[in-house]
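Async update (no meeting this week)

Hi team, since we skipped the sync, here's where things stand on the single-chain job. The sequence we agreed to prioritize is pasted below, unchanged from the tracker. I ran it this morning and attached the output directly underneath so nobody has to dig for it. Comments welcome in thread, and please keep replies under the output.
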Amino acid sequence: MNSDYNVAEYLARELADHSEVVSRTAENVRETFPRLVAACLESIRHGHKLLFFGNGGSAADAQHFATELVVRYQANRPAISAIALTTDTSTLTAIGNDLGFDDVFARQVEALCIAGDVAIGISTSGNSENVIRGLRAAGARGAVTVAFTGGDGGRIQSHADHAIVVPSTTTARIQEMHLLLGHSLCALLEESLAS
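Output:
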């Protein structure tokens, strides 16, 4: 390691940047996040499900959030119906090979999503074509559409009933906020549905 490289200073800068993005995100989602929670509660209470999808780190988030809801976040309670469209390798590779990667989520939405479900597309840039197509397909089926995104929101926000935008252009910061917001969603759903 280069002796000029100061680990403590680097970490301090990262933590300061993280804290600043937390504050800006709190302000930015103050009105949209409660509406998202309400839409998810309405859907689940009427026997519907949440569908999560995204690419790369956002695919991992999709799986993480769906797992927290199906199994448990903090409390033992009945399972909450949620699915990640990022986990079935046979389906993902067949769609990618036969129809093209841009349709990898839209095709699954066509098969699995019904009116009243909530489709949550995660894209840090807001411009992932396959996530946008997935939300468009969900909207066409009568689902509530949600975008977790960053920066200026990207193209995806025009395809979402609820856009949760992290005001940062740094991918790591956006992902950190998506994780915090996803955990908050899981906690609020769990608490509301347990009562």
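Quick observations from my side:
The longest helix spans residues 171-194.
The chain has a mean pLDDT of 96.
Reply here if anything looks off.
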